[in-house]
Amino acid sequence: MTRLTRRVFPALAASLVFTLSAPSIIAQEPTPGPTWSQEDTLRIVQQVQKKLAGLSNLGVFDWLTFGIHGKTLVLKGYASRPVLKSDAENAVKGIQGIDSVDNQIEVLPNSPMDDRIRAAVYNRIYTQPSLRKYNANQGNIGRAIGPGAGIALAAGGITNTPPMGFHAIHIIVKNGNVTLYGVVLNQMDSSIAGMQANSTPGAFSVDNDLIVQGSASKLKEK
């Protein structure tokens, strides 16, 4: 990546990672009640994005989105650790104008099998030469979580010691089923990531929900 891309791409990813179509939530209940002004909505959305992006325990194996229903903020997505669910709610509930927080974040099962799959998918994706640019660590699990930490160690508890730093491709594993979320620069990179995940031993299924930069066609509620 060029220096310019390194600066711009994470910001782009964050804007998509933390966006959930508000109409898809509001449609569930036709009368949301009082709403914010356009100016307040923009301010609140920006503050929520900043708060969620700043969570120190949000990592490559988590995925957070949010929407608005009246003056209620709706949190959705997946957390590999229970603490992330509560931390996300605590981070946003004090934002001025938010009356309440509906925390629908799903905590993923605590599963050694899923941990092994997380570690294996991570290495298959982020050691691909064309995909290393999406990983701040530019390498595999061992480099990402520290010296001496190989695949065997990582597979035994990668949920508790996830790779650090920015990752554009998020890996969600639930009961052996894998979903890829995030933003990539082109369709080829999306296809390569999907193929690498599909070739992971032990993965029951793979759903590639990666978004290609500049396209919103795959944005959907999960």
TrEMBL record:
Residues 1-27 form the signal peptide. Residues 40-109 form the BON domain. Keywords: Signal. It comes from the Bacteria. The keyword Signal applies. InterPro entries: BON_dom (IPR007055). Pfam families: BON. This is Osmotically-inducible protein OsmY. The lineage of its organism: Bacteria, Pseudomonadati, Acidobacteriota, Terriglobia, Terriglobales.
